[in-house]
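[SOLVED] Need 3D model of a two-part complex

Original post:
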Amino acid sequence: MLLPGLFRAGVVAAVLAAALPAAAQAAPRTARVCAPHVLLVETPGGAVTGIVHHYDLLHVLQGAGHAPWWRVTTSFGTRGWLRQRTLCGRKA
Amino acid sequence: MTDTELLAALRAGDPGAFAEICSRHEAVLRRFARRILRSDPAVVDDVIQESLLRAHRALLRDDRHIEVRPYLFRLVRNCCLDEISRVRTDSVALHLLHPGDEPSSRDSSHTLFERRDRLTTTLADLAGLPESQRHALLRREIDGLTHEQVAAELGVSAGASRSLVLRARETLTRAAAARGADCEDVRADLLRAHDARRRAPAAALRHVAGCSGCRAFRSALKDDRRALRILAPLPLLLGGALAAGKLTGLLVGASKPAGLKAGAVATLAVVAAGGAYELRTRVFEAGDRAPIAVSGVALPGGGISAGQPIPAHVALVTRQVRLPRTGPVAAVSMTCPAGTRVAGLVPESHDARSHGFASSTIVGTSSSARVVFARQGPGAGETVTVAIVCRHPDATGSVRAAPVAPAGTATVHPCRRRAALSDAPGGAVLGTVTSHQPLAVLGARPGWLRVRTDAGRAGWVRARVAC
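Solution:
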């Protein structure tokens, strides 16, 4: 049966995700904002997409170690990049 | 006891059996729901509760054989999709993959970008299907049931089951096609339909369902008409009041049409959307005095102070919003003037509640922005002002005030809403490029392009994301 490629890929990924054993699920990487307020940008050096405040919890999408810029998503859904030095309290 | 034995005990009248089933599977079901509803974990409890309620009713309905664990997973999956369908916003990010689950290979970032985008759209399309179609499709495709089995579950004929599956596929295919439609074309269709006071074409409406920018455009059209409708009785009201001799003071004000108009707009443009009350929208175009300090890459020199004239090609849209004390995440939509695109957010007060663009708002591409606020923080019940900068894109499509010239090289744009820019083919991700952003091609390798963005940043993107 012919499914659109997009749908097929989504279904396969959804099935795989459902089939993943619980033990294989790693906890999300999170970090908290340490500065009083931090601007999120679309890309380093790009337009501002949001503002987060001290102690806001963020999910880290890109970035590790001492990479200067990390890509995060906020609890309210905004995605953007911010400077790693504005974050603290990472946990695995 | 096995699940089957527990099910038999439940059907025999042992109320403790269902509690045992719940305690045995609830944790893993909760994790499963959390993965699908990542953008809104607060509703996971509700979804699990609803799923277990449905399970309790269904398990007791008759004596047919049921594999309990897969059945519970299916129920949770369907409840999650119902929830997504209910919320139905572009800001719902359906990350089935944990950020922490990224494979360690250097290629993972790009794959993750694409997979997230694909999953988000696919599951949103699935969530939008009528329940019977979705059920038939999922049971057929994921659970591998025959049409006869699906038909038995739905209480329809096997032919009807086939028809449901076909219609579901057709709807998904059309949704995918509608998503790829050009926003300008869709908006032209919406405008024509609005003007003719008829329903917009189905293809345009399908596109609107998945495009926040066009949805905001359509909402703005409706808001305009609603506001004008409210204005309609004004002469009658004025006439009545004048007859009563009670509006002498207002008559003085009425001799200043601009003041009266501003007052009317301020009073009437009260609409509720996304849990926040939008009190007043103001648009400042080139030459107008900026009411606040504005900064961003769309402004020459990086910004202007309050009171300075707004530069050419730039517009500022402000909106006063009253944040709810409780309830869902507050969100407002703000539409740029015609011909301009969203070029950035202007946080007017750094003390306000955390907020930002929904992920569906693409800088340089979207003509309207959806601004979402954090659930908690200062400002509850208070009025805050949100501001966005809009800018006419230049000939290359850039909304930066000083884009780096392509320097005679070929220019491409990302075909995807967002794609990763990395320091080497498959290397570390340096940043994000967005659709409509001009990328000057500096070189190529099989499967990869070396590009320079309009910000002057060089890096590599996958060749397949470039148009």
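Edit: Residues 12-28 of chain A have pLDDT under 50 and may be disordered.
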